[in-house]
Request: fold
Amino acid sequence: MGEFINTFIQAAFVENLVLAYFLGMCSYLAVSKTVKTAFGLGLAVIFVLVVTMPINWLINEYLLSENGLFGVDLVFLRLILFIAVIASMVQLVEMIVEKVSPSLYNSLGIFLPLITVNCAILGGSLFMVAREYNFNESIAFGLGGGFGWFLAIIAIAAIREKIRYSNVPPALRGLGMAFILTGLMGIAFMSLMGIDPAAFAAK
Amino acid sequence: MAANTVQEAKVQEPLFGKKERKLLTDPLSDNNPITVQVLGICSALAVTSLVLPSLVISIAVVFVCAFSSLITSLVRNAIPSQVRMIVQLVIIASLVTVVELALKAFNYPVYKQLSVYIGLIITNCIVMGRLEAFAMANKPWRSFLDGIGNGLGYGAILIIVAVIREVFGKGSLFAGSPLEMKFIGASDDYMINTLTSDWFGWYSNNNLMVLPAAAMFIIGILIWIQRSRNPKLVDIS
Reply:
């Protein structure tokens, strides 16, 4: 359990996917104009990350590795398989949401299929491989990473809603300002690096 | 007979006509993928703290972008529209795998340094965006040029950011490559040693530039400069 909390805090705050690694930047900038849509997209990203990370972990461990099902090193297929899992998961999520809650489906609209090309999702899976997480840690990383992404997009959307009334130079309005704000938020999040996740885990 | 028709087609559409040249140069300025279209910021900003990895990523993106556009454009009429995303992703993923394996074989240190960011070229929105917006509706040669142009436009921004960050953050240029140049810093390896120099004792490299946030600031400022020079690009919202 301690390990789980440790990885969660690490992923959500200390190594925030957006603010420390710039993953998922495209949709982060495109969808952060209002808090409402940012909220929906954030939730969808959390969900997809939590579902795809363990699946990709299982695939990596039992299909692709040398002591897996086929007994051959199939690591070169990793990228293709990971992206295929993500694409099909997003498709599945889309279908489920459409069946279960048509109102949520309508409010998310085009952002659901866009999650496939959100770098944070593939990046999460690739980080999981690079850092050799175990199964529990991969779930924790998915949950924490998604939560961190959610926090970041909500924060920037709120700031952008307010900053519309400020007197920003015309050439900097919109996109330019969003970049600089993200940079400032990145610096602010760096103060969280002082958190020692091990201290939480010990409690 | 077949050769004849090919030649005729070439006469009608010159290989490097005005339109073709525009496809190459447009993404470098007025339609830059990063500063104007806001695509593909995701994967590569974290690698811009040094010039060498940014150069490698840029070359990889030009390669992937150009050839995925070419292949998609060749098979565009055979792709059913419901599964086109998956087909495009498979094409991109195979090309990225080629790049990854080549880099692993030829330059392992850089491969280690870039780690996950090579794989993330797959989800680089520029590649996907160009396939959707251009290659699905245009002829192979033009799509190929469009791919190269957008890859270069992306690489140009990346390298500008990387040069600024490396020179001011680390006091060096091309660190890690045979061309390595060390300008200024606190040891004898550098051309100007700030510890012993009479003139540059006050100077120290800017640690902010090494942080990821610096890339955001530099791109924000680049956008600012570009938009104040070209008011057409200013967005109203």
Observations:
- The radius of gyration of chain A is 18 Å.
- Chain A has a mean pLDDT of 82.
- Residues 55 and 115 of chain A are 17 Å apart (CA to CA).
- Chain A is about 75% helix and 0% strand.
